[in-house]
């Protein structure tokens, strides 16, 4: 054992819960836990058990050393082209995703509970989607009002009666989780259309391995490296009843899409072609890809294009991004699409409010993961409550994403509240409201040392022959001090998320 390892272990054993933590160099001595659940520290500013080893290792890092490693990680991101596009940004169309080198840690027992809850949720939502496009039993039985389903902007009449391969509609799902002041996890929203961000999970892991190789090696963190192989297996499984080796492609809107880096990265990692709509053609209800060798049959399409643009013959006739005739080929079972068209009905934030009832209805089980308390503004009683408490609520449009179109009541002006009150009254079905949560915080390296910033967590769920939940997922950080908005388009960043095995030994 090296001298610094022995010293770290000795200090760890001698540290008592009543001691005040002071760490020279990186600014933890002034770290403010605040009136929030802090992921690293308890209320007395002592490191939580699963963070203790990492904390001890950071003890020996000088401020300039930590900054040097942070800058090296950022240079790697630029070199690898890990970027996202911001529409309408005046400072440039592409940015790197800000990355903080202090990982977020979740102990394995807590993760296994989250994993069970996520699997339960995805099974129920998949049954819900299938029911809506067939018998609509949940509507007839009065569990969800018919009005909610009929007025859903992401309901696709073109998908009525469709039977996707294996009965799976939501092959890839990103579920956003948050913690409250007491440390309780809640589901904030479900993303079942074209959820993005998993490439940053995989790249963040590579960056943290480069930045702290010894720390990571000894930490016994559950791996994420097999995500792409599991995703490819799930995609191929959709058509293995017809083809021995299904040919899979990833359909992108093109290089100007905000998530284009992810599209190209995932295609490269899975070893499949990255195509645009113009690269595909439908003939006799089969899909083919244009190549230098001629046309090649396509069996599965991992589409990163919204429903409206998939097929100009079935959806928007002005779409230049899709493939004419694609939906007919899909309906006849000659190609599989992931996620299935129409799955976005479970992405609607008003439908989200009914997910606990959906779980009870289809599974006859109590939800493992609770929703955040949610008020639907189409209901007059709930709407009046929201309008009377706009200064305390977070108001969201039903089908927006990226942190756009929101009102964060406690941070808003009277004028902004009045504007949202008018919007709600004009289109009540289009809005939900939730209490403002005191989101948990994590330490982030800033120019003033380590400071707390709010976070959420987006685990990714892959549904194939079985359901796989990527350990940890994407931790998004609101890098602006005091901000609750974690989206990269709104100034947010990310961290590597470690699910720490029970057998983990102290980090050196």
TrEMBL record:
Coiled-coil residue windows: none
Entries under SUPFAM superfamilies matching the protein: Glutathione synthetase ATP-binding domain-like
Gene3D superfamilies to which the protein is assigned, alphabetical: 3.30.1490.270, 3.40.50.11290
Domain Circularly permuted ATP-grasp type, chain residue ranges per copy: 103-478
Top-rank lineage group of the source organism: Bacteria
Region span, Disordered: 488-508
Pfam families (alphabetical): CP_ATPgrasp_2
InterPro entries on file: ATP-dep_Glu-Cys_Ligase-2 (IPR051680), CP_ATPgrasp_2 (IPR025841), UCP005522 (IPR016450)
The protein's name: Circularly permuted ATP-grasp type 2 domain-containing protein
Species lineage: Bacteria, Pseudomonadati, Planctomycetota, Planctomycetia, Pirellulales
